[in-house]
Design brief:
The chain is mainly alpha-helical. Helix content is 58%, strand content 2%. Helix 1 crosses helix 2.
C-alpha cells in the first residue's frame, strides 16, 4: 500500500514538471498546473520545497498564464538571452537528436506511449516529454501494471539522471528565472527522492561527450522542428482545448 501511494505521488510530481516544461499556448494545462501545485504544497517533501511551492502558488496567477509564458519564452526561446537547452542528447554529446533520443525511442517501444509528431514537435529526449512519459508510467504502475516498473527505472537512470543536474543549474542561473528558480528547488528535491527510491546514484561527473565535428551543426530535422515551434508560437492554437502538447503522445488503447 505504501509503494502504491508513493507511485501516485511520483506521478503527480512528474505531471507538474511536464506542465512546466512542455510548450503550450493553451490554458487548460496551465490551470491543471496551478491545481497540482496547490495539492502538493499541502504535503511537501521538506521545508525548502514547501517554501518553493508557496512561492510558485503566489507567482502563478490563477486567472492568467501571461507571466509564466513570458518567462518561459525568455528562458527557452528568446534570441536576446541565453537559451537553456532541453534535450538529454545536447547535455550528453553537444548535439540535438543524438544517442539519448534513440535510447528514449527504444524505451518507448516497450510501452503504448508514442510521440504524436503532428501535435508535439520536440524530440523524445526533451525534458518535458521525459517528464510526461514518466508521469504516465508511474500512474500505470499505481494502477497495478508492474510491467512498467523496470522501464521507469531505466528511463530515470539512463536518461533523466544523467543530465538533470546540469540542466537544473543552467536553468536556476538564467537571468530571467524567477518562477523557474522555484521550480528548480522542487525539482532537485524530487530528483534526490527518486534516486533514493529507485536506488540510483548521482552521476559523479558530467558525461557530456564532446563531438567537435558536429557540436556546432544543426541537422535539417532540427531546423524544421525549430521552425515549426516558431510558427506554432506565432499562430497559437486554433482551439484552446487542444494545444500543441495537450496530447503529447499517442496510445494504441486508452490507459
Amino acid at each position: 500500500m505504501k509503494d502504491k501511494e508513493i507511485n501516485k505521488a511520483r506521478a503527480l510530481y512528474y505531471a507538474m514538471f511536464s506542465r512546466f516544461f512542455v510548450f503550450t499556448t493553451g490554458t487548460k494545462r496551465y490551470f491543471e498546473l496551478v491545481n497540482i501545485i496547490n495539492l502538493l504544497k499541502e504535503n511537501p517533501l521538506d521545508n525548502t520545497t514547501k517554501d518553493a511551492l508557496e512561492n510558485l502558488s503566489a507567482l502563478l496567477k490563477i486567472d492568467s498564464n501571461i507571466n509564466f509564458m513570458n518567462e518561459f519564452d525568455d528562458i527557452f526561446h528568446s534570441p536576446e538571452t541565453m537559451t537553456v537547452r532541453t534535450t538529454a542528447s545536447y547535455y550528453y554529446e553537444d548535439i540535438e537528436c543524438g544517442k539519448k533520443r534513440i535510447e528514449m525511442q527504444n524505451f518507448l517501444a516497450k510501452t503504448k506511449i508514442r510521440r504524436d509528431e503532428e501535435k508535439y514537435s520536440d524530440y523524445e529526449d526533451h525534458i518535458g516529454f521525459i517528464f510526461t512519459v514518466l508521469s504516465e508510467l508511474c500512474e500505470l504502475e499505481y494502477e497495478g501494471q508492474s510491467e512498467y516498473t523496470n522501464t521507469i527505472h531505466c528511463i530515470f537512470e539512463s536518461v533523466l539522471n544523467e543530465f538533470v543536474d546540469e540542466f537544473s543549474k543552467e536553468l536556476y542561473e538564467h537571468e530571467s528565472a524567477e518562477i523557474f528558480k522555484n521550480v528548480v528547488v522542487v525539482l532537485k528535491a524530487f530528483i534526490e527522492f527518486e534516486r533514493i527510491y529507485l536506488e540510483v546514484s548521482k552521476p559523479a561527473f558530467s558525461l557530456k561527450v564532446k563531438n567537435q565535428e558536429t557540436s556546432t551543426e544543426i541537422s535539417e530535422e532540427e531546423r524544421e522542428r525549430r521552425a515549426k515551434n516558431k510558427a506554432m508560437k506565432a499562430n497559437g492554437p486554433k482551439n484552446k482545448e487542444t494545444s500543441s502538447v495537450h496530447i503529447a503522445y499517442d496510445v494504441e488503447d486508452d490507459i
